[in-house]
Design a protein that fits this description.
- By secondary structure, this protein is mainly β.
- It has 4 domains: 116 residues, no CATH class; 153 residues, no CATH class; 144 residues, Tick-borne Encephalitis virus Glycoprotein, domain 1 (Sandwich), CATH 2.60.98; 184 residues, no CATH class.
- Helix content is 10%, strand content 48%.
- The chain has 3 helices and 51 strands.
- Strands 16, 34, 35, 36, 37, 38, 39, 40, 41, 42 and 43 form an 11-stranded mixed β-sheet that branches.
- A hairpin with a 5-residue loop joins strand 20 and strand 21.
- It is elongated, with a radius of gyration of 45 Å.
Length: 629
């Protein structure tokens, strides 16, 4: 009879343990990073009344006869499941999503916690706000030469210090990237028009196509002037050139100067003379001259002297009996193109670029023109952090020599520092002439196919064979030497769309002072500086264990390593199963109140039942004592 009383006492004691665990879980339902516990029981001693017997002598076997002596506590297990998250908006609050633990130190020992309520003390040391223990991780190392900060996670962990006066040193710009689109539909747009010959009742449909030649740049006196010169070819329906001329347009598309080419019928192979022009020749002088054939190809370009009305143009492409179009500098053969009979087109010489049928002004076509220039800017820095506004000017020249979609570019500073250019061979010029800029050629898919330097000697625009995309300028007047930057143009495109080219990156910066910091999901502490840039200041370490439930809870939401937890495996967030961080949030307790209340009811009923065992056994003992009466 006493056995049942002892079993009841053991049961009551165990359910008291269960109530204690439930009470602790409920008490910590709002504790940051708390992990709930559960209780399990196991049988205590058993008294064997009769041992088991195996079958023998035609008799079956019998099971053992045992009387249990109650239960005992088996385990109190930590439930290490993920808790829910609460957004706090506080930059130093961090929650762990995964199995990791923050590593804290008091200088002699490591502690581990899931409570990510962190802060910075008066010395700038990263700490856990509730205990003052120092958060462990890696401090960023600053290169003494470049000032670049980096985190070496192969080094031992230590305290993380973020000083309010931290600075980012100035760096000179050495590289920049430009991306976006350059509009291919700028400059004069090709157009067609139809004029009538009333004498033969014939209609002529012609097409004006604009291109650039070296003569155009001489005519406008500089490759980068506001007013741009174009050579136009007038094609007939048979695909042959019927007339050639030039037109200089200002930025608003209004005509500054224009003219038509002289026409000549070659009477000898390899040369044209004044006799081939029918007596219509320019005044005496020396002219930079281009000659085009009926296919629109330039077969000659050079200076031609005219004296006493006499001259000779020698070119291997000239053939007897063929028609040629010759432009002598800015000289014009007239302002009208004759197509046949009375079908003539008047060429605008000033003002609005309107081409009209000579004897029918109501039949006209106005040239669609948008300035071929586009300018974007970038802020560059010297090694002392002095800023320089550098402008990049792009000018579409389209078809030029063997390039179909060419753009000239040059750079200049707002403060007037002279810009020079350096090609891939380290040269600042081609031959005896310095580069005045560069040229970018796009292929038919709108992508860059080549980048070269250009030189200008006042009369000839030459394109080098060497890649060019580096600029430099003297900054000694500000205490530095030379700023030299390599420009990455490869992200530029040329499509028929709006201009959007802009610089997306440059690696220079002014001196910056730390303004604020934040922690990202990898535990990196990113500082924001007064120069608008960010830099890494450190990185928080996380630890994982083979058996995290085996850690010893020492209070204050802290754990220490036990004999069965395994050693701490320390590394970065996002690696090795350590989980990632959620900035501006805290992990709440993983206690489920509904489950805890259910356990409480079960423990209460279990305690009551075991108490009844004791009172029942006492009643039976009372009856036994009463037998003596």
């Amino acid at each position: 009879m006493m056995r049942s009383m002892f079993s009841g006492v053991a049961g009551m004691k165990n359910f008291q343990y269960a109530i204690d665990v439930v009470g602790n879980n409920i008490a910590n339902v709002n504790t940051v990073g708390f992990k709930g516990s559960r209780v399990t029981f196991q049988t205590a001693l058993l008294q064997t009344m009769k041992a088991a017997r195996s079958p023998q002598n035609n008799m079956g076997g019998t099971n053992p006869i045992q009387i249990g002596l109650g239960s005992q506590l088996a385990t109190i297990d930590k439930i290490m499941t993920q808790g829910s998250f609460e957004n706090t908006g506080r930059k130093t609050d961090v929650a762990i999503e995964g199995d990791g633990f923050f590593v804290l130190s008091n200088g002699t020992q490591y502690y581990y916690t899931r409570a990510g309520s962190l802060d910075v003390d008066m010395n700038g040391t990263f700490i856990q706000s509730s205990t003052g223990l120092k958060v462990q991780g890696w401090r960023a190392i600053q290169d003494p030469t470049t000032g670049t900060r980096y985190v070496d996670t192969n080094q031992p962990i230590g305290d993380i210090v973020i000083s309010a006066g931290m600075t980012m040193p100035a760096n000179a710009t050495t590289a920049a990237t430009i991306g976006g689109n350059l509009n291919s539909r700028v400059g004069p747009i090709p157009f067609s028009m139809t004029v009538a010959d009333t004498q033969s009742n014939t209609d002529y449909t012609v097409r004006f196509v604009f291109s650039r030649t070296s003569a155009d740049f001489i005519r406008q006196t500089d490759p980068f002037t506001t007013s741009q010169s174009y050579t136009w070819d007038l094609y007939g329906e048979d695909g042959k050139v019927k007339a050639v001329g030039f037109m200089v347009l200002n930025e608003f598309g209004r005509v500054v100067n224009s003219g038509t080419a002289f026409q000549a019928d070659a009477t000898a192979n390899g040369q044209l003379t004044q006799n081939d022009f029918g007596g219509n020749v320019p005044a005496d002088g020396t002219y930079y001259t281009i000659v085009k054939d009926e296919n629109g190809q330039v077969i000659f370009k050079d200076n031609v002297p005219v004296a006493g009305g006499n001259f000779t143009i020698s070119a291997t492409g000239i053939a007897t009996g063929q028609k040629y179009f010759v432009i002598f500098g800015s000289q014009s053969a007239g302002d009208e193109v004759a197509l046949g009979g009375d079908a003539n087109i008047s060429i605008p010489t000033a003002g609005e670029a309107r081409f009209y049928e000579s004897d029918n002004p109501s039949n006209f076509s106005s040239l669609e023109y948008q300035s071929p220039k586009y300018i974007t800017a970038i802020q560059m820095y010297d090694s002392l952090g002095n800023p320089y506004s550098v402008y990049f000017e792009f000018t579409r020249i389209g078809q030029f020599e063997d390039m179909q979609n060419a753009w000239l570019w040059r750079a200049y500073t707002a403060s007037g520092e002279p810009i020079s250019y350096v090609d891939a061979n380290g040269q600042s010029g081609d031959g005896t002439n310095d580069y005045v800029g560069g040229v970018i050629n796009f292929n038919e898919s709108g992508r860059i196919s080549g980048m070269y330097g250009i030189t200008w000697n006042g009369s000839t625009l030459d394109v080098s064979d060497t890649e060019l995309r580096t600029i430099k300028f003297d900054a000694t007047h500000m205490g530095d030497s030379t700023v030299q930057a390599n420009i990455d143009f490869t992200s530029l495109t040329q499509f028929a769309g709006s201009n959007s080219a802009a610089f997306t990156y440059q690696n220079g910066n002014a001196l910056g002072t730390l303004q604020s910091f934040a922690i990202n999901e990898n535990g990196e502490i990113i500082g924001t500086f007064s120069n608008g840039l960010t830099d890494i200041l450190g990185q928080v370490a996380l630890a994982v264990f083979n058996n995290p439930a085996g850690l010893t809870d020492i209070g204050n939401s802290l754990y220490v390593v036990s004999a069965n937890s395994g050693l701490a495996q320390i590394g970065t967030a996002g690696s090795g199963g350590r989980g990632t961080l959620i900035p501006g949030a805290l992990e709440m307790s993983n206690v489920d109140l509904a489950e805890e209340f259910t356990k409480m009811i079960i423990a209460q009923r279990g305690f009551q039942a075991n108490a009844r065992v004791i009172t029942t056994a006492d009643t039976i003992l009372g009856e036994l004592v009463a037998l003596r009466r």
